[in-house]
């Protein structure tokens, strides 16, 4: 109708414009979107059964992207500590470029679920929904398949997604944990529009000669269409697969192939390819740049040097970033971009998309909005409210076997105390739960630090929990609480990172707990007396007797003897010298001993950030809850010297800082009175006589 | 011709496809690419003289991007230390998304040129050319215009680009230093294709009511077409402007307006708008998302909440990131992404574009390729070859006035020693040149640290040079050389960051240099005796007498008395106690005193990375070049305690590390023999008697 007036000229003009647009869409590269020369060679020996279906996708321009606020669905299988780290990098790249709301479907084992649940809960990225699916429940469906691929059993789980994901979920993009996005996933989602009526699986051709079966003598790959397809990135029409009887289909093929082949070499990919070889109408080939495969002998260069744009890179070699490839440096830089990217910065709204805010986000916004910027303690209050992104068990960790008197050492640190870890491991052979306050970049430095340390990498009972930095004040008590919450033994030794415990302390504490019959019968905090050395080369005493000799020689002091004696005076060092049995001491103002308590002890008060009063408040809380304070006669721990932290430097030089700590203390006491009534009066009375910097 | 066969159906099909493509291009938003509702209101009172020209650009879809490897031209005016930092963030965002080779035309004052020349030279980003233009030479062309805008005179320089840039440069994108890219600049470059035959200036409409003149009573803005245009992002057809007599045109308009208006309020933007109001055919309006303006009362939300995509954000408020805007948090996160982005990761090749490598890149590649990964010292050799990105004078700095005996304190540090800076400033009132080894993120933390420190922000004579981290070993001597090269006084005091000099040292050194008549007549290194305290709270001696008392009391030691006495023994502390005049000492093995030397002294040997032998080698070099070693009787400096660095920890625990330091020492001695012949024999002989960890 519109054409009626001057069809011919309009037609010509439209065609011209089309050519122009085509030029735009293909970036001036007539091959864009098509399999490369490599692609042409693919089906040499083995032409696809439905070449029309295959070729069609090559010439059609990219379809329109999904509507601005359409929810895109993504599924990822992830198990264990290391894959969880990989998934986070993948998700960071995904979130960086996305403009649409996302729903992530995560098929995880218990370890990955624990990590990722905490992570996403604390990450609070707008417009991202997360659903978890129990991988262990899916295991029986694939565990019968012998498999040699490094991804193990979990590599096979992509096969069961049509039944594992919700029945009303029709389309999903399935990603391996080792891919990195370099573009907006909506462009990939848009390729669903290319599918013909029957096609159900979108895949990029394999960028190696593996399936051609000529890599070495007697190389017998699984059957595939020509060069085969790579399953690192899959567009799945779940609805069609269910309708086509997918489960039956792949099991039949796999069973048949396993009659002649001993095992899958490439996990799910072998089976996907075998099914596709049998039912080629299922597959919609995708443009190569949506899965640029960087394995050792990759043919990907043909793809990325011609395409105007890289879309997704895939580290599909067991060597990952150490793969040999002449351009690997450039790809690695893209990967490192997201590995080291500050995930907090992804808390960006999608303008114009009405999405429900992440849980807790609204309350947080309100609380933040109520703060007054004029308040001298604004920075403190803002820091207290900050929800830090938390990555628990950042490195592989084996929980300690359940033992009734076991003790976990709990501490927190930042980058500048990393060099304490080796010594600490030598002094404490038991389980530890450590919170590390790091940037994303520092977390990677930390990872390398552990990997290159023989001492640290030998320990599987040390759990490292990364709390990502945000704000200007060190959230010391929030960090302690993260480490404390992750301790898995019945007792915890609440220490600080710049202390080294006596070599015998771990054993001695467990024996003491048993002897004192603390389990349930007695509510006590065991005090570990604290000392300090001022020499940073120092020979650690192997016994109490040796310690006392050093003390008398002036090589050791009781902790903060010069600057802040009241912090430890109630421990009564004079009595400790002679003591043969545990003795009870009374709380006094500013007392902040290092103690062993049951895991369910009160948490630290998160209002204390930066330097000042953070432990003192916790000991008050213990005393208010009527914990006995019992000093152990053979226990000791020694503080090593270090330069003052930035926070302590700020505290000393800034009167506002001190005023704020005082204001926080006052508020703490008010809360204490509210909670414990008259019993809390003694703490307030003690406070009336200020005696030190806190 | 092609159409002849079946024009009608083909025309219809083409139109259908066009609609489909249109949907794709406009993201399903029929308003995309057009001025928003706000745009419709723009010309209410003041319709453009050439509405056809204006409207045409609204309905034409984005043109094809430039060919894959086309060189894109960008011009930026930049002056001073702070703007240089801003430009780097802008350039990082530009490089992150670009896929084309770029030529940056930087119009700079001497300060910015010095900074940016060093930066780009050491950055070595592939496919980026840089040209500098002297802003000071252009000043007379704009300095006659009275201007109230915060950008000052430099804000006006965009007006003279057609004559300042090379005459054969036809097109350029001009950017303010306060914009951030969120997309590929090639898409912006492609908009040149929208220009009609006469149009020469592409601009986004102003996103505030400023030019409507109704913001307050008696608000008299410069004349503009409706809401006017913002000049933070400009597409300039330089060829057409030159042809149209641009210089004459804008000067005429400006002169005329200045008859009735007292000064420009918005610098160049007022004049651009006045010229455009007079010659509306010059302007091609650009889609709003190419310059999303985040000033205080911005109307930008209309733009960014409808557009599918943000392209460029513009912090066009003097408050910059502290501007009040309900979505500022999200924009800030995008900005922080690039502020904190590791610039090293932008050393990414453009696959498939033949570009000449950056200067030095090929030699570097060859040298790196010759290293053997099997070599136990591979990491050391790789670190030595690393070209670190260097940002000299990261913060505002005023060079010291030339004085013949002035001394600059030279040192290097990383984040963990930042807290030393305030104390150092109190102890050394003279000029300092400090190299800081930081990540991009840490550089921002450092900036905030200085800004919030009253002591540090009061000092303009401390030059901070950021050397960006790369590799696992601390490049200590490269850092020292950067700091040394930037010292501007005739003498330098080569110190370390964990030392505090005597309060009187700066004055005393200048007096000594004068007295000893060092200028030219005598080749000497003045030794400043070094001591150490083991207490981190410590009252600093105010005189040599007080220092000796502390020494006798055991509160102070000579430096490394316990661990490495040979490092300072040749200083002869016993003699120093009594000395009243400078005395000469002889070199001995492992001597590493802190010295004052002329600025043109030998550089440190960059092969020594990490811990070990880095200063020792430098003192050998001084001795080999026959510098007299003169100990100053009243000079002293004191080392404060700190935890051992990660490098020293590695050194102690790793035998390979020690072997490599030994190998480097051997190579150093071989070079020494080659250079100094028989005279170097004594160093080798001394080496035969190994006495310590180095």
UniProtKB/TrEMBL annotation, chains A, B:
This is LARGE xylosyl- and glucuronyltransferase 2. Residues 36-63 are annotated as: Disordered. It holds the Pfam family Glyco_transf_8. Gene3D superfamilies: Spore Coat Polysaccharide Biosynthesis Protein SpsA, Chain A. Its cofactor is Mn(2+). Residues 1-30 form the signal peptide. It is found in: Golgi apparatus membrane. Keywords: Glycoprotein, Glycosyltransferase, Golgi apparatus, Manganese, Membrane, Metal-binding, Multifunctional enzyme, Signal, Signal-anchor, Transferase, Transmembrane, Transmembrane helix. It comes from Bos taurus (Bovine). Pathway: Protein modification; protein glycosylation. One of its GO terms (biological process) is protein O-linked glycosylation via mannose. GO terms for molecular function: glucuronosyltransferase activity; metal ion binding; xylosyltransferase activity. GO terms for cellular component: Golgi apparatus; Golgi membrane. In the N-terminal section; belongs to the glycosyltransferase 8 family. It catalyses: 3-O-{beta-D-GlcA-(1->[3)-alpha-D-Xyl-(1->3)-beta-D-GlcA-(1->](n)-4)-beta-D-Xyl-(1->4)-Rib-ol-P-Rib-ol-P-3-beta-D-GalNAc-(1->3)-beta-D-GlcNAc-(1->4)-O-6-P-alpha-D-Man}-L-Thr-[protein] + UDP-alpha-D-xylose = 3-O-{(1->[3)-alpha-D-Xyl-(1->3)-beta-D-GlcA-(1->](n+1)-4)-beta-D-Xyl-(1->4)-Rib-ol-P-Rib-ol-P-3-beta-D-GalNAc-(1->3)-beta-D-GlcNAc-(1->4)-O-6-P-alpha-D-Man}-L-Thr-[protein] + UDP + H(+); 3-O-[beta-D-GlcA-(1->3)-beta-D-Xyl-(1->4)-Rib-ol-P-Rib-ol-P-3-beta-D-GalNAc-(1->3)-beta-D-GlcNAc-(1->4)-(O-6-P-alpha-D-Man)]-Thr-[protein] + UDP-alpha-D-xylose = 3-O-[alpha-D-Xyl-(1->3)-beta-D-GlcA-(1->4)-beta-D-Xyl-(1->4)-Rib-ol-P-Rib-ol-P-3-beta-D-GalNAc-(1->3)-beta-D-GlcNAc-(1->4)-(O-6-P-alpha-D-Man)]-Thr-[protein] + UDP + H(+); 3-O-{(1->[3)-alpha-D-Xyl-(1->3)-beta-D-GlcA-(1->](n)-4)-beta-D-Xyl-(1->4)-Rib-ol-P-Rib-ol-P-3-beta-D-GalNAc-(1->3)-beta-D-GlcNAc-(1->4)-O-6-P-alpha-D-Man}-L-Thr-[protein] + UDP-alpha-D-glucuronate = 3-O-{beta-D-GlcA-(1->[3)-alpha-D-Xyl-(1->3)-beta-D-GlcA-(1->](n)-4)-beta-D-Xyl-(1->4)-Rib-ol-P-Rib-ol-P-3-beta-D-GalNAc-(1->3)-beta-D-GlcNAc-(1->4)-O-6-P-alpha-D-Man}-L-Thr-[protein] + UDP + H(+). It is a single-pass type II membrane protein. Bifunctional glycosyltransferase with both alpha-1,3-xylosyltransferase and beta-1,3-glucuronyltransferase activities involved in the maturation of alpha-dystroglycan (DAG1) by glycosylation leading to DAG1 binding to laminin G-like domain-containing extracellular proteins with high affinity and in a phosphorylated-O-mannosyl trisaccharide dependent manner. Elongates the glucuronyl-beta-1,4-xylose-beta disaccharide primer structure by adding repeating units [-3-Xylose-alpha-1,3-GlcA-beta-1-] to produce a heteropolysaccharide. Supports the maturation of DAG1 more effectively than LARGE1.
């Amino acid at each position: 109708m519109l054409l009626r007036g001057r069809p011919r000229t309009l037609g010509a003009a439209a065609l011209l414009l089309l050519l122009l647009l085509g030029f735009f869409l293909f970036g001036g590269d007539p091959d864009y979107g098509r399999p490369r020369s490599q692609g042409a060679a693919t089906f040499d020996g083995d032409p696809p059964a439905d070449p029309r279906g295959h070729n069609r996708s090559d010439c059609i321009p990219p379809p329109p992207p999904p509507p601005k606020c359409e929810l895109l669905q993504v599924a990822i299988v992830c198990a264990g500590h290391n894959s969880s780290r990989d998934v986070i990098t993948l998700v960071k790249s995904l979130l960086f470029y996305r403009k649409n709301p996302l729903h992530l479907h995560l098929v995880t084992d218990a370890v990955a679920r624990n990590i990722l649940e905490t992570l996403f809960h604390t990450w609070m990225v707008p417009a991202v929904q997360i659903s978890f699916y129990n991988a262990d429940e899916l295991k029986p469906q694939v565990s019968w398949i012998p498999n040699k691929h490094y991804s193990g059993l979990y590599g096979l789980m992509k096969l069961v997604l049509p039944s594992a994901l919700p029945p009303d979920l029709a389309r999903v993009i399935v990603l391996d944990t080792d891919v990195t996005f370099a573009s907006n996933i909506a462009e990939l989602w848009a390729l669903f529009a290319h599918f013909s009526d029957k096609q159900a699986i979108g895949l990029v051709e394999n960028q190696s000669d593996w399936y051609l079966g000529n890599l070495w003598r007697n190389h017998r790959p699984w059957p595939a269409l020509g060069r085969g397809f790579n399953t690192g990135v899959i567009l799945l029409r779940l609805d069609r697969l269910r309708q086509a009887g997918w489960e039956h289909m792949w099991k039949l093929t796999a069973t048949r192939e396993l009659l002649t082949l001993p095992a899958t070499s490439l996990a799910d990919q072998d089976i996907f390819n075998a099914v596709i070889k049998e039912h080629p109408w299922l597959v919609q080939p995708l443009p190569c740049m949506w899965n640029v495969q960087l394995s050792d002998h990759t043919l990907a260069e043909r793809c990325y040097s011609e395409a105007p744009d890289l879309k997704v890179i895939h580290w599909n070699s067991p060597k990952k970033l150490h793969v040999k490839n002449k351009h690997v440096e450039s790809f690695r830089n893209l990967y490192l971009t997201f590995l080291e990217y500050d995930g907090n910065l992804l808390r960006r709204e999608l303008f114009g998309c009405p999405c429900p805010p992440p849980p807790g986000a609204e309350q947080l916004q309100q609380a933040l909005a109520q703060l007054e910027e004029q308040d001298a303690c604004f920075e403190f209050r803002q820091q207290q409210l900050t929800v830090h992104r938390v990555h628990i068990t950042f490195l592989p960790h084996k929980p300690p076997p359940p033992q009734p008197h076991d003790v976990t050492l709990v501490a927190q640190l930042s980058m500048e105390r990393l060099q304490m870890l080796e010594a600490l491991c030598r002094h404490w052979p038991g389980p530890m739960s450590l919170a590390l306050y790091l940037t994303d970049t520092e977390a990677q430095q930390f990872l390398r630090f552990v990997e290159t340390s023989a001492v640290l990498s030998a320990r599987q009972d040390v759990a490292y929990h990364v709390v990502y930095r945000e704000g200007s004040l060190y959230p010391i008590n929030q960090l302690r609480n993260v480490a404390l919450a992750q301790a898995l033994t019945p007792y915890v030794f609440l220490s600080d990172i710049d202390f080294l415990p006596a070599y015998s302390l771990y054993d001695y504490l467990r024996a003491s707990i048993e002897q004192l019959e603390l389990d349930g019968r007695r509510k006590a905090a065991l005090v570990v007396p604290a000392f300090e050395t001022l020499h940073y080369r120092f020979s650690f005493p192997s016994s109490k007797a040796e310690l006392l000799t050093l003390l008398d020689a002036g090589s050791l002091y009781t902790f903060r003897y010069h600057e802040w004696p009241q912090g430890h005076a109630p421990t009564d060092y004079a009595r400790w010298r002679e003591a043969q049995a545990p003795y009870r001491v009374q709380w006094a103002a500013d007392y902040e001993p290092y103690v062993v308590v049951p895991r369910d002890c009160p948490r630290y008060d998160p209002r204390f950030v930066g330097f000042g009063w953070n432990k003192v408040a916790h000991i008050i809380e213990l005393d208010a809850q009527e914990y006995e304070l019992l000093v152990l006669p053979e226990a000791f721990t020694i503080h090593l010297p270090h330069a003052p932290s930035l926070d302590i430097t700020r505290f000393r030089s800034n009167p506002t800082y001190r005023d704020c700590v005082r204001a926080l203390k006052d508020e703490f006491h008010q809360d204490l009175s509210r909670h414990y009534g008259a019993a809390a009066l003694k703490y307030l009375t003690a406070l009336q006589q200020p005696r030190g910097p806190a």
